[in-house]
Automatic annotation (TrEMBL):
<protein>
    <submittedName>
        <fullName>DUF2796 domain-containing protein</fullName>
    </submittedName>
</protein>
<feature type="signal peptide">
    <location>
        <begin position="1"/>
        <end position="23"/>
    </location>
</feature>
<keyword id="KW-0732">Signal</keyword>
<dbReference type="InterPro" id="IPR021253">
    <property type="entry name" value="ZrgA-like"/>
</dbReference>
<feature type="compositionally biased region" description="Basic and acidic residues">
    <location>
        <begin position="129"/>
        <end position="140"/>
    </location>
</feature>
<dbReference type="Pfam" id="PF10986">
    <property type="entry name" value="ZrgA"/>
</dbReference>
<feature type="region of interest" description="Disordered">
    <location>
        <begin position="113"/>
        <end position="140"/>
    </location>
</feature>
Amino acid sequence: MRRLLLALPFALLPLVAAQAAQAHEHEHEHGSLGTHEHGVARLNAVLDGQALELELESPAMNLVGFEHAPSTDADKAKVAAARKQLEQPLALFNLPSAASCSVAKQELESPLFGDQPAADHDDDEHEETNDGHAHHHEHSEIHAHYQFTCTQPGALKDLDLAQVFKTFPATQKIQVQLISPSGQQGVEATAKAATLKF
């Protein structure tokens, strides 16, 4: 399984190159464009035998509505609610019961969960305003990594992301890199086109 995930970036280089060219073109039209884009999440999915591995990366804005460290009770409640949803991957990814999948391992990471101080986050940017003062932008992300064991992997015909869009409505699209027995593909899922074929 690990070797498949390691091979994923190399197998999908043509797709990445095309996306980079689009981003570069977009950069010239609209200024700087980073990989951190509100409304857009990324999902890597690998199905290998009975093992299914999903890795979701999203700006915190998509999942909790903000990216700063939670300081109010309302902010803390939003972070706790999002974490609770992410801790239920069988429901979140709507895996069919016929596949008999169970969670073998799951990891959730984000500065908002207290994993690392927001001030130490690598994606922070500093920008000078017109009055010469530095302005600080936080770019917190949430990473969720799941490993499932599915005793009936043949029942996994589709990957249904509808519940992800329903649970986190600020997520407008998910860029998916998918490797399965039928091959590899890079697709973009939206709430209206949320089902992908394995």
